[in-house]
Write a structure and sequence with these properties.
Strand order of the largest sheet: 11-10-9-12-8-13-14-15-16-17-18
Shape: globular
Number of helices: 16
Oligomer: single chain
Structural class: alpha/beta
Helix content: 25-40%
Number of strands: 26
Length: 507
C-alpha cells in the first residue's frame, strides 16, 4: 500500500484546515512541488523530503544536515536561519502552532489513512498492556493459521512486528510517523489484524490522533507517570487514558479496575461495550481460578459459552489479562477454539519467565514489572504462590520520569522483600547513584536488607549467588530488553534473561 504522491500545497492546506498553520514561506510553484518522503530523522532523508523539526534535543544543525541530504522544505514551530548553507534555491518553511498534532495529520495524509484496512486493537492501562497484547497476538495467530493467512502484527513496549520490521521497541507506542509506517507495512504484507499498546503519553500527545480502533481495551488505572515531563497529576494521567474511548468502535472494560464507574461512563461513547472481570455481572466472567506449577486454569462464562481456559505462565494477576484478551476476541468474533488454543500457547518475552538451577530448588523470575500497580500485583502473587519462601528483588528506576516510583517501589519492595538490590534501569540524563540512593531511602524504612550495586550484571549475579533454596529471586523492569539508556543514547547490553541463565549455571 504505497502512499499517493502529494504536493507541498496539499499539506499546507491540510494544516490550515485544522487550525494549525501559523505561516508559510511557500508560494507559487513551491506549493506544487511533490512531497516524495517525510522524516523527522536527519539520518533518514532522501531527495524530495519534507523534514519535520521535532524533539527536545533538536537543533538547527539537524535541519541543515537534512537539507544537504535532499530535504526541500521543513515544518517547525519556529523559523531557522539557513543562510549559511548557500543553497541555490529557497527552502520553504511551514510554521505550525502544535507540532504533535501537525505530525498526526501529516502522517495520516501521507499514508492515506492506511489503518482503515486493518482490524486495530488498542490496549491501555497502568499494568498488563504488554501481556494482554501478546495474549491477543497468540489468539489471532492461531486463528489466522487456520485461515491460512499471515500472522498478526504487534506494536508493544517489548517488540514491534509489522510484516516488514521486526525489532525491539524504544517506546510503548511509536511516534506518529513511525506508527503509520507500521500500519502501511502491515497492509503491504497482507496482514489483517494489529494489536498495540496505547500509552497515556501517546494519547496525551496525539500520536494516535485520527486513528480509530476496531476494539479499544481499558485494563486498569493507578498512579504512574506523574512528573513534569509526563503528567502533572493523576487526573491528567487518567483523562489521557480515557481518550482511547473517543477513537474506538467497541470498548472492553475491566470491572475490577479502580474508578470502574467513571471508566464505564466514558466507554458508553462507543457503539458497544463488553465488560470482563472476576465479578459475576461481567459479560466475560472469570471464576474458579486455580494454580498448578507454572500454569493457571480458570473458568469463563459468557452469554455463549462456559469453558475452562489455561495460561502457561505464573502470576495470578495474568488471569485479568487473559480475560481482557478473551473479551477482545469475543468482540471480534474469534472462534472459541482459537481463543483457548492461543492462550494456552501464549508466551510473553521477558514477562514472568521462570528459571531454575540444575537441582530445581532455586527459582529466579524475570519480569517487566516497573510501577506501583505491577509491583503490588507481583509481590501479592509471589506470596500466594511461594508462601514459605523469602524474596530477593533486583530493580531500579528510570531517570527524569515517573519520579514517584522511587518512593512507591522502594516502599513496596522494602515491605515484601528480605533483600533488595538496587541497580541501573535506564537512568538516562540523571545521575545513576542519585536515583539509587533515593530508592534506598524508602527501602530502608523497613526491616529489609538493601544493597546498591550500580552495575546491573553484578547486581543480578550477587542476588543469585546469595540466594538459597528457600528464596525466590525477582529480576524486574527490563525483561528481555537489550539496551540501557545512558545519557541520550541507548547502549547495547545483554538482557536480564541472559544474565540469569549465565549465573544459574553456578548454583
Amino acid at each position: 500500500m504505497s502512499n499517493k504522491i502529494q504536493s507541498l500545497g496539499e499539506y499546507v492546506g491540510l494544516l490550515k484546515d485544522n487550525g494549525l498553520l501559523v505561516e508559510t514561506s511557500a508560494e507559487g510553484s513551491e506549493l506544487e512541488e511533490l512531497v516524495k518522503y517525510i522524516s523527522y530523522n536527519s539520518m533518514d532523508v532522501k531527495y524530495g523530503t519534507l523534514f519535520i523539526c521535532k524533539g527536545t534535543h533538536f537543533t538547527v544543525e539537524y535541519l541543515k544536515s537534512a537539507v544537504k541530504e535532499g530535504a526541500f522544505a521543513y515544518i517547525s514551530e519556529q523559523k531557522y536561519d539557513l543562510s549559511e548553507l548557500k543553497t541555490e534555491r529557497h527552502i520553504p518553511y511551514i510554521i505550525v502552532n502544535d507540532m504533535r498534532k501537525a505530525m498526526a495529520y501529516i502522517s495520516d495524509r501521507y499514508y492515506n489513512q492506511v489503518w482503515k484496512k486493518l482490524n486495530l486493537i488498542g490496549i491501555t492501562g497502568t499494568k498488563g498492556k504488554s501481556t494482554t497484547t501478546y495474549f491477543m497476538k497468540a489468539v489471532l495467530d492461531d486463528y489466522l493459521k487456520d485461515m491460512k493467512k499471515p500472522k498478526s502484527a504487534v506494536l508493544s513496549g517489548i517488540d514491534n512486528y509489522d510484516g516488514v520490521i521486526n525489532e525491539e521497541s524504544h517506546l510503548t507506542t511509536p511516534e506518529t510517523l513511525d506508527l503509520h509506517r507500521h500500519f502501511n507495512n502491515a497492509v503491504k504484507s497482507d496482514i489483517e489484524y494489529l494489536s498495540m499498546e496505547v500509552s497515556s503519553q501517546a494519547l496525551k500527545y496525539h500520536r494516535t490522533l485520527g486513528v480509530h480502533y476496531t476494539v479499544g481495551c481499558f485494563l486498569n488505572i493507578g498512579e504512574d507517570h506523574i512528573s513534569e515531563a509526563e503528567h502533572r497529576d493523576f487526573e491528567d494521567y487518567f483523562q489521557s487514558k480515557l481518550k482511547l474511548f473517543d477513537q474506538c468502535e467497541t470498548a472492553c472494560v475491566n470491572l475490577d479496575s479502580d474508578h470502574e464507574e467513571r471508566i464505564l461512563q466514558e466507554a458508553s461513547k462507543c457503539k458497544r461495550v463488553v465488560t470482563f472481570g472476576l465479578q459475576e455481572r461481567a459479560d466475560i466472567y472469570g471464576y474458579n481460578v486455580a494454580t498448578s506449577g507454572n500454569s493457571i486454569t480458570f473458568q469463563v462464562r459468557s452469554d455463549s459459552f462456559d469453558e475452562e481456559f489455561r495460561i502457561n505462565m505464573p502470576g495470578l494477576f495474568n488471569v485479568s489479562n487473559a480475560l481482557a484478551a478473551i473479551a477482545i476476541s469475543y468482540a471480534l468474533n474469534i472462534p472459541l477454539k482459537n481463543i483457548r488454543a492461543g492462550l494456552k500457547k501464549a508466551q510473553v518475552s521477558g514477562r514472568m519467565e521462570v528459571y531454575t538451577n540444575r537441582s530445581n530448588d532455586l527459582y529466579v523470575i524475570v519480569d517487566y514489572a516497573h510501577n506501583k500497580m505491577s509491583f503490588e500485583s507481583l509481590f501479592t502473587s509471589m506470596k500466594r504462590e511461594f508462601p514459605n519462601k523469602k524474596i530477593t528483588i533486583v530493580f531500579g528506576c528510570p531517570g527524569k520520569k515517573a519520579l514517584a516510583r522511587r518512593r512507591e517501589l522502594g516502599d513496596i519492595a522494602g515491605r515484601y522483600s528480605d533483600h533488595v538490590f538496587i541497580t541501573e534501569e535506564d537512568a538516562g540524563e540523571e545521575p545513576l547513584m542519585k536515583i539509587c540512593e533515593e530508592i534506598a531511602k524508602h527501602v530502608e524504612e523497613h526491616a529489609c536488607k538493601c544493597s546498591i550495586i550500580p552495575d546491573r550484571k553484578e547486581a543480578i549475579r550477587q542476588a543469585i549467588a546469595d540466594a538459597d533454596r528457600d528464596t525466590v529471586v525477582l529480576v524486574t523492569g527490563k525483561g528481555r530488553e537489550t539496551r540501557q539508556k545512558r545519557g541520550t543514547r541507548y547502549i547495547d547490553t545483554p538482557s536480564d534473561v541472559e544474565y540469569v541463565q549465565e549465573f544459574l549455571k553456578d548454583k
